[in-house]
Design a protein that fits this description.
Blueprint: H1 4-18, H2 23-30, E1 35-42, H3 53-65, E2 73-76, H4 89-106, E3 111-113, H5 133-140, E4 147-151, E5 154-158, E6 162-164, E7 171-173, H6 177-188, E8 196-199, H7 208-211, E9 216-217, E10 221-222, H8 233-240, E11 246-251, E12 257-262, E13 265-270, E14 288-295, E15 300-306
Parallel strand pairs: 1-2, 2-3, 5-8, 8-11, 11-13
Antiparallel strand pairs: 1-14, 4-5, 6-7, 9-10, 12-13, 14-15
Helix pairs in contact: 3-4
């Protein structure tokens, strides 16, 4: 006796055979997808000399490079160092030196950078020529805080989520006018046949950040503030709705692993290498990184990997 599911599958198969397709052709159709890019997404390392963080990053790098199916490059999602926003220049330099030394000693893969809020130095200290993002861009060897490139038939867009507040004391998560205009032009110039992946430090869309860290306020509802996710998400999503070839958006910032599908685009936050800032697991997201596979048909898969760190 066939089950209902088996009958449905059989009916679908007979329908294909009735259209003139052979079993061999159907099987070939299921195996046509080809992987074109595999990379590791590391975000929110928050490097510091304390809490054994240098050993943690080294272990993470060894773990991902020991994968039997090794990634071809590292996508760094920002917040490389613990903090530059409110630290002295010497302290910031110390953190960057540790970061760079570990990547020189313990990593052989190319790295692409995305700027995080903790990477930006000296908001409120505008007299220094390295004020703001210039310091991070120098350390990351970037000429622009946002950019795009092609790899394996996919178009990569790396956004700059972090903008200083007018008073210079904090930051907001959004795209400034110049960057949004650039994004419009970049999307328009990309053929619709080319799948697109977008990388940002702060999430463009997030569910987890709404419900964690006691964001519900009596009489107000959920209040997530200006520094948790993009404040301009509606504007960005309205733009994305015009481009069905935008497939995947990756982010970090919230140190939580989540996946949201909205209007045909998948938004994934990939936890943090530092977990709960090197103090263990954050909620139910362990210290980890992601392995991302991109395919020639515009599909993808993403696996969040714990590298076995004990605080």
């Amino acid at each position: 006796m066939l089950t209902r599911r088996q009958l449905i599958k059989s009916a679908g198969l007979f329908g294909l055979l009735g259209s003139g397709l052979s079993l061999k052709t159907i099987a070939a159709g299921n195996s046509e997808k080809k992987r074109v890019v595999r990379f590791a997404h590391l975000t929110d390392v928050h490097m510091e000399p304390e809490l054994n963080a240098p050993a943690g990053l080294a272990k993470c790098l060894h773990h991902l490079q020991s994968q039997k199916d090794q990634p071809s490059f590292v996508m760094s999602g920002g917040d490389c160092i613990f903090d530059a926003l409110h630290q002295t220049k010497n302290r910031v330099e110390l953190q960057w030196n540790i970061w760079q030394n570990i990547f020189r000693q313990d990593n052989t893969l190319p790295i692409e950078h995305c700027i995080g809020n903790h990477d930006c130095w000296g908001f409120g200290q505008k007299e220094d020529p390295l004020y703001g993002k210039k310091y991070a861009m120098e350390k990351m060897q970037l000429t622009m805080p946002y950019r795009s490139f092609n790899n394996g038939g996919w178009h990569f867009i790396i956004l700059d989520s972090i903008q200083p507040k007018a008073d210079g004391t904090w930051y907001t998560c959004l795209l400034d006018d110049a960057q949004f205009s650039w994004l419009q032009q970049d999307l328009a110039a990309t053929p619709l046949s080319v799948p697109i992946i977008v990388v940002s430090h702060a999430p463009l869309v997030s569910a987890a950040t709404v419900v964690t860290d006691n964001k519900f306020k009596d009489g107000e509802g959920y209040v997530i503030g200006v520094g948790n996710m993009h404040m301009d998400s509606p504007k960005i999503i309205e733009l994305f709705d015009q481009y069905p070839n935008i497939k995947l958006c990756l982010s970090g910032h919230i140190h939580l692993h989540e996946r949201v599908l909205y209007n045909g685009v998948t938004y994934i936050s990939n936890g943090a290498v530092s977990g709960n800032w090197w103090k263990g697991m954050r909620y139910k997201t362990d210290n980890g990184y992601a392995l991302v596979n991109l395919y020639d048909d515009g599909s993808f898969d993403d696996e969040y990997v714990s590298y076995g760190w004990n605080a």
